[in-house]
Write a structure and sequence with these properties.
about 500 residues, seven-stranded mixed sheet, alpha+beta, five-stranded mixed barrel
Length: about 500
């Protein structure tokens, strides 16, 4: 049954506040003004050894007015739901723009002037994400009960000493209106369940852990009851995998062929492609906090990012994607586009100002604010490596390796401020010998530069290996903002990648 926008959100004075704010901005001479009203409810439950260890349920509600006045940005936000207050907030935004305009004028250059790329008007549009059951309609005792039951199932297994379990859920409503005539109302749901089993060797004191590889998703409660993931199968495997990991030999450092599972590769995509192709970063706008990018603007259409097997898209439309929307926070309709085509850099992620500044035409809808308190910034789309339509299975990719490692699940990561030099670890590493898996390894990290790593990618798997991974906690901007984003990918084969022994690297 199709969902409708939550009536309690629609009952708020959205239109009246927007009308008051935008009218005031126009009257004060704003060249552009937009109004955004948000209600974001976030809840979390955590269990330790099947017993509750903490919970939270918070709602962020308010509105923001952003203007362009005199070629400068102005921004202000408020929580008072009266027309006078909304008009006052608009006045504050214009005052801030006037102050910023003085700074631009003092610099004696038009470089800092704000102009926005054109966007068609989207009048009276509604968009709702794809889910079946809003997790906030499920009783809290059912949530903690399911997490406790799963935890107990793991604790009953031999060798499992402790279990951590958590569930994060978000219900986000957003109303947007601007002086061009765009009006959108949106609703989306997302959640992230996770369990970690811990084993401890009582004799030596050594310990290790094994975490579920189920990704966070833009789905509802149905995800925990069998839609989109087989939880029973994964929970059944974890104890034996953890026991094998505890006994596994330490890896011998050197060069290996890698078959990387989507549960690991999504994070490498996020760090080495997703952030590197944010054009504000490539132009230096994030240098003070999040760094720059080796994929500089002058290399568009030229940079050999990887092998010819590499095709990467930015996508705001993928079903169940964490960064999937109908319209962004500048009123731009969601799109899908190429970032890397046949191994060459061909596109970036854009908002309206960056699109206009660089002459790249229309924004591809990458403006987002995580709260009504924050100004929209350029944020990541669902950045995904595309499968080979006739590609191999994961088993067949492994079958083509004589000496290598199969990498499953993400763990720690490290990458430089230009998104170029990195090393990543994982949850599970399996030795490959003569095309077969021959047991787990420990202390593994793979290390490369971005272009060397993606250049070594010989094959990508077929659609049957494709999984949409992702994270709830991508950080950017000052003041800091957090956004959820998905990254789809197939399994992939990489040749001759440098493998470190993390224990040896740590001097132990």
């Amino acid at each position: 049954m199709p969902h409708e926008i939550d009536q309690t959100f629609l009952a708020l004075p959205l239109r009246a506040l927007a009308d008051a704010a935008l009218a005031r901005a126009r009257a004060l001479g704003a060249e552009h003004a937009d109004f955004r009203f948000e209600r974001v409810r976030s809840a979390a439950w955590r269990l330790r050894d099947a017993k509750p260890s903490g919970s939270a349920d918070t709602t962020d509600l308010g509105y923001a007015v952003r203007v362009v006045h005199g070629g400068a940005w102005g921004f202000a936000s408020g929580v008072d739901l009266t027309m006078d207050a909304a008009a006052r907030v608009a006045g504050q935004a214009v005052a801030m723009a006037k102050l910023s305009a003085k700074v631009i004028a003092a610099a004696g250059s038009d470089v800092g002037r704000v102009e926005l790329a054109e966007e068609p008007v989207h009048a009276e549009k509604t968009w709702i994400s794809s889910y079946e059951v809003d997790p906030f309609t499920v009783p809290d005792e059912d949530k903690t009960g399911l997490l406790a039951e799963w935890s107990e199932r793991l604790l009953r297994a031999e060798g499992v000493a402790h279990v951590d379990a958590s569930l994060l859920t978000v219900h986000e409503n957003k109303f947007y209106a601007d002086t061009a005539g765009t009006v959108t109302t949106q609703q989306r749901v997302r959640l992230h369940p996770q369990l970690t089993a811990v084993a401890v060797d009582e004799t030596t004191g050594e310990f290790d852990s094994m975490r579920t590889i189920a990704p966070p998703v833009g789905r509802g409660w149905e995800y925990l009851t069998g839609t989109g993931w087989d939880w029973d199968a994964e929970l059944e495997q974890i104890p034996s995998l953890l026991a094998e990991k505890m006994r596994a030999p330490s890896v011998e450092a050197g060069r290996y062929d890698l078959v990387v599972d989507p549960s690991n590769l999504w994070l490498t995509i996020h760090e080495s492609i997703g952030h590197a192709t944010e054009l504000d970063r490539a132009l230096g706008y994030e240098a003070a906090y999040a760094g720059t990018s080796f994929a500089t603007f002058d290399q568009l259409g030229k940079l050999a990012y990887g092998s010819s097997a590499m095709n990467v898209t930015g996508d705001r439309t993928a079903e169940h994607g964490l960064a999937t929307i109908g319209y962004d926070d500048e009123g731009v309709e969601a799109q899908s586009w190429d970032l890397v085509k046949d191994g060459t850099l061909v596109g970036y992620q854009l908002d309206r100002r960056i699109a206009k500044l660089t002459g790249l035409g229309r924004s591809n809808g990458c403006a987002y604010a995580d709260s009504p308190r924050h100004v929209p910034v350029q944020r990541m789309a669902n950045v995904s490596l595309q499968p080979d339509p006739g590609g191999l299975s994961t088993e067949d990719l492994i079958g083509g390796v004589e000496r290598g490692i199969y990498v499953v699940g993400d763990r720690s990561w490290s990458i430089d401020m230009q998104r170029y030099n990195f090393q990543f670890t994982g949850q599970r590493f399996f030795r490959i010998e003569n095309g077969r898996l021959t047991g787990q390894l420990r202390d593994v990290a793979y290390q490369a530069t971005t272009t060397d790593f993606w250049g070594s990618m010989e094959k990508v798997g077929g659609p049957q290996t494709y999984v949409l991974g992702g994270a709830f906690n991508c950080g950017k901007a000052q003041p800091g903002q957090v956004a959820a984003v998905s990254h789809g990918c197939p399994s992939a084969l990489f040749r001759g990648v440098n493998i470190l022994n993390t224990t040896q690297e740590a001097g132990r």
